[in-house]
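Protocol step 4 of 6: structure prediction from sequence.
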Amino acid sequence: MASMFAGDLKLPSISSLLSFYASFSALAMIIRTILNEALPRPVRHFIAAKFSDLVSTHFSTSFTFVIEDRWHAVTNETFRAVQAYLPTRAGPATNRLLLGHNDTNNTAAPPQSGIPVEAKVFDHFQGMKLEWTLHEKETKKFYPRHSHWYELRCSKKDKDRVMETYLPHICREAQKIFNHREVLNIHTYDNDGSSWESTVFKHPATFDTLAMEPEAKRRIIDDLDTFIQRKEYFQSVGRAWKRGYLLYGPPGTGKSTLVAAIANYLRFHIYDLQLQSVKNDSELRRVLTATTNRSILLIEDVDCSSKSTKPRATRDDKENPDESDDETKDRLPFDDPGVTLSGLLNFIDGLWSTCGDERIIIFTTNHKEKLDPAMLRPGRMDVHLYMGHCTPAAFRVLAARYLGIQEHSLYECVEDLMQKIPTTPAEVAQQLMKSDKPEVALESLVEFMKTKESESENSKLFTKEEVVIKQEVTKSTEEEVAEQDDKKLL
């Protein structure tokens, strides 16, 4: 019976199959043409997307996570974690790798690795197979001009495990990488490109080599250690996890060197911002929210950086004597007013100050009295540190660093002169660098300070003579006026 049934069953010929395929293809093309002419483009895209989702839901066994570089107007910390983690997972299955370094001080340094766009990286974690791909797209209307995102593909059955165990594992590993940075970067804002440009930061300054009073150094180190360890405390009291420092004093007293020592101690990147390069408050927010956690925002010579940082009475009376408050409010939208005081303070201590964690904000100035009092109150600048002239203790640190000695017969002479002649650490260092021989270098320093003392005394004498001359001129002028008045009366 079975053989008879098999004999009656006839398979279609090849020609009939080809004929059916041609007829079906023609019918499909006719239907597609009708749909393209009858339905608008958005409707067609909607139908295609729904059909793709339907096929993916019922037939696909994979799931894709998308991790973009920006999240709610700030840097996506998950993206940063993946960016640091993935180069450590590049293996034999990775067919492309990005190499390079920006250490201009050491051109022979081994290159660092990164993941190029559209390259695939495969990872295995707790029996799960995971595939990563980096994508890039140019954005003409928004900041920044290029957006990046990672796509993580995994099995549907592993979706929950990826969320609960794999991604937290990546964040922990990335945190270890951030905590043990071998290379620090210093970033500067490129106004033309509307982005931060970076280079390797290799300043040799440390707290051991810093020419400061030991007690002052210890206070700074203790303050930094306390800040780093108090994340939960800042959260419990409802404050942003940040710390503000104001370094003020005469030029050449080591303000920039202290910033370098802080960066090396904490292993924090530096974002060096010139307020003149920022057009307005809106751009300032974009610039500052593009900085990363565990970083230092540095604004040097803030008294010279912007009109917004000067006392408001000074700005109103001297800089805009003919401009009323109403005229200020009525500036045209396309007139870039620059960074305002409120815009700057809003990031330091306002709502925008919460856009980031573990940040150090440092302002430097040569003239603290020129700053608006609103910038100086607690909560904005938490630590006010005066960087003064060189002290005997600071001199000994410099001598040990530049000359490699702890004691010398000229030390007492130098320290006595230093008590009378204000001398900056930069001036001391300049004299100590003139010779590798301690005797010659110290004699040069003594001669420099004596010359400075002599010039100071001469300046005082000239000042006294000028006062006497002015008094005599004034007296003679008054006598002449009196004589003329007498003649008029006669």
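Step 5 (inspection) to follow. The chain has three domains: 54-180, 185-324+332-386, 410-475.
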